[in-house]
Amino acid sequence: MLTSAVIGGSAGLAGLGAAGAVSYGVLKVEARLARRTIGKPFDASPDDTSLYGAGLGAPVRLVVLGDSLAAGLGADTRFQTIGGVLATGVSALAGRPVQLTNVAEVGAESPWLDGQVRRALEAVPRPDVALVTIGGNDVTHRIPTAVSASHLRHAVATLRGAGAEVVVGTCPDLGTIEPLAQPLRTLTKHWSRELARAQTVAVVEAGGRTVSLGDLLRPDFLSAPEHMFSVDRFHPSPAGYARAASALLPTVCAALGLWAGEAQRGPDRLRGERVGTVEDTAARAARSPGAEVRAVDGGSTHRRRGLAMLLRRRRPDGPPEHDDPDDELDTTEGTAPGAAPGASTDG
Hints:
Blueprint (H helix, E strand, L loop, with lengths): L1 H7 L15 H14 L12 E3 L7 E7 L1 H4 L10 H13 L3 E5 L10 H11 L5 E5 L2 H5 L4 H17 L3 E5 L14 H22 L3 E3 L6 H6 L1 H4 L9 H18 L18 E4 H9 L5 E7 L3 E10 L36
Parallel strand pairs: 2-3, 2-4, 4-5, 5-6
Antiparallel strand pairs: 1-3, 6-8, 7-9, 8-9
């Protein structure tokens, strides 16, 4: 898949600014080497559809959709997946059990969300909250950004229409994958970030919230890859999933109304939070791992169109918009992931 992605995306190299000087042959060789390194040792992800936690009252209904990150490929048990960690955490804060229903699929791309939403609502007609993580395969399989965003927007709107709060973990930074060499690592970073930005705009406009996964796991992955990656050196280990879930949990809880004063919460400028246009806020969030974006409400019943709020519910590991040495190779803004080489196997 790595090699075919590079071959299929070769036509887009001419529009990559400084990257245009990069030899196509170099990228092709790097992709082949990475593909040989990345293994596929897993037969399946754990089945984490189950009841979690305890307490009084009816269970909180959580549905999970998306790709291998949502499915938990690389985790050993149902309690180690993103859904399992979130369900356990929500139960502890809500004082109620959580019924998790997971319809995510390994290898899923955004167009697959149509079927996943249908299956999720057949199983749980009125979920309380839905978590979606999608995007990595859209980048590597050359799905145009507009197509990806359109399917995600439709999925979020349908889930919102069913009464669910929706939280989307945007496309993670594929440049953190250990086997990738330069310049392929830098290029995949830019394509991942571009898709994350488009996803945020689509989700917010459809009434959902996003959390930027970005390179959230980069510091841990670089310092302790043997602990944060699973044995295939691509999917997260249980520790990696716990790290990602820790960034998503505050937003999921806020969406469920488990934080006191959430409805009146405004931006805290001391934390780097702000209100701006959806497009500008989405671009900032794509550069700020862990950042949440949601629409700004004007009063209790009307959303102020075109404005979004960037929130930081977790303490960042570094400056909000840190400089990254991998950003030195610039790309032309607007290049679709489908026009460039990819960097992973199905995930």
